[in-house]
Specification:
The chain is α/β, with parallel strands linked by helices. The chain has 11 helices and 20 strands. The chain has helices at 29-38, 56-60, 73-86, 89-94, 119-129, 150-159, 226-232, 253-261, 274-287, 328-340, 357-365; strands at residues 2-6, 9-13, 47-50, 67-70, 96-99, 108-114, 133-144, 163-165, 172-177, 196-199, 211-214, 243-247, 266-271, 293-298, 310-315, 320-321, 324-325, 341-352, 369-373, 377-383. It has a 7-stranded mixed β-sheet, with helices on both faces. The protein is globular. It starts with a strand and ends with a strand.
Length: 386
């Protein structure tokens, strides 16, 4: 745990899941910059905090009873833990945690935006929130210099109103936006541009030409990425009433391919992104019949899955968390898969060759084999022996 010093007190903050070996902080210079700026502002009415990565902003501003809007299950869990650690029960109960799929508050008087990595997600959220703004709404964005581009400012300008940036402080910037009455309010409700659907290319087996739906913020929302395509070309040929997990499902194309190839299978789609799980459900429904069996779970890898209950796990693990490179997520996914798999069950992993996932899989499973490889990617198979 690290101590975050703010005008609202010294806060003990951690990421989620908490790991005493993890030296990454639960805030960065952009959070610090925004909170310092807010010291001179009057925060009255409904305060909405969008994209608060580990709950630093919601925890610091808990006395204002903010509404946190996040696409991340892990961010919500971190926020709950940090609120409980630093605030009274009354403060904690006053903070509302919403996902990006939930209906936003009817009126927003203060809008604070931690700029996300995905420009599409920023566009989607600004369009969803613009009808709730008034001409007097205080709108401030924040992000590191490397995260705020001309395209970022253009989105604020186009959807909300005139926009300017601050000077950089500790490699962070603020975005100041003045709501334009002609762009906000009920008239803005018809601007939503997501989700989007595209047809898959030919040559990838049962999914050739089939539709894939993507909500904003999903990786490669307008095309099939080459890593996923490589996995689709080398999926396991298994049949029967299997229980299959598409772990870190994204838009669900991999799990849907298994369901199309084996209608007797039950597929569980799980991801820590609410946008991803919504995309996976839309993709699955568009490609399967009413008798197809599936579950859609927003959560932390396989932490809520019963032990020895799964036959097959398919996984394309991320190797970064926001701007930090880390193998922590992949390790949790692999260890969770081993626990969830029945004896004889298999984990299939697609990854860049240089990531060396085979080393981790051998440590966890006692061995693994290469199913397929290319100059860039490798598909690995690990079997739970006992």
């Amino acid at each position: 745990m690290n101590i975050f010093t703010t005008s609202w007190g010294d806060l003990g903050l951690t990421r989620f899941p908490e790991d005493p070996r993890d030296r990454l902080r639960a805030w960065d210079a952009s959070d610090e910059y925004l909170l310092r700026h807010l010291e001179g502002e009057t925060l009255a009415g409904t305060v909405a905090v969008v994209g608060d990565r580990w709950g630093a902003l919601a925890t610091a501003l808990a006395a204002y009873r903010p509404v946190q809007i996040s696409d991340s299950y892990l961010a919500q869990r971190a926020t709950r833990a940090n609120l409980a650690r630093n605030r009274t029960a009354a403060d904690t109960e006053g903070v509302r945690l919403l996902s990006t799929r939930d209906t936003p508050p009817d009126r927003i008087d203060v809008l604070l935006v931690r700029v996300p990595k995905s420009l599409a997600l920023l566009e989607d959220q600004l369009q969803r929130l613009a009808p709730r703004l008034t001409r007097d709404t205080l709108v401030v964005g924040t992000g590191m210099v490397t995260e705020i581009h001309t395209s970022t400012l253009r989105l604020f300008e186009r959807i909300v109103g005139p926009t300017r940036t601050s000077l950089a402080v500790k490699k962070a910037r603020l975005i100041h936006c003045t709501p334009d009455p002609d762009r906000i309010g009920p008239a803005a409700a018809a601007q939503e541009a997501w989700p989007r659907t595209y047809a898959l290319p030919d040559g990838i087996g049962v999914m050739s030409g089939r539709p894939v739906t993507n909500h904003a913020g999903i990786f490669c929302a307008d095309r099939l990425d080459i890593g996923t395509r490589f996995l689709l070309e080398h999926l396991p040929d298994r049949r029967g009433p299997l229980r299959v997990v598409d772990l870190g499902c994204g838009n669900g194309v991999v799990g849907t391919a298994m369901a199309v190839a084996d209608p007797a299978a039950e597929v569980v789609f799980t991801d820590e992104s609410y946008q991803a799980v919504a995309s996976a459900e839309a993709t699955f429904r568009a490609n399967t019949g009413p008798s197809a069996r599936a579950a859609f779970v927003v959560g932390d890898a396989l932490s809520g899955t019963e032990r020895d209950s799964v036959d097959l796990v398919l996984n394309n693990p991320p190797f970064h968390t926001h701007r930090a490179l880390t193998d922590g997520t992949a390790w949790r996914m692999f260890t969770g898969a081993r626990s969830a798999l029945r004896p004889g069950g298999e984990l299939w992993v697609i990854g860049n060759r240089h990531l060396g996932y085979h080393v981790r899989l051998r440590r966890i499973f006692g061995g693994c084999e290469t199913v397929a490889s290319s100059p860039k990617f490798v598909v690995l198979r690990a079997v739970k022996r006992r």
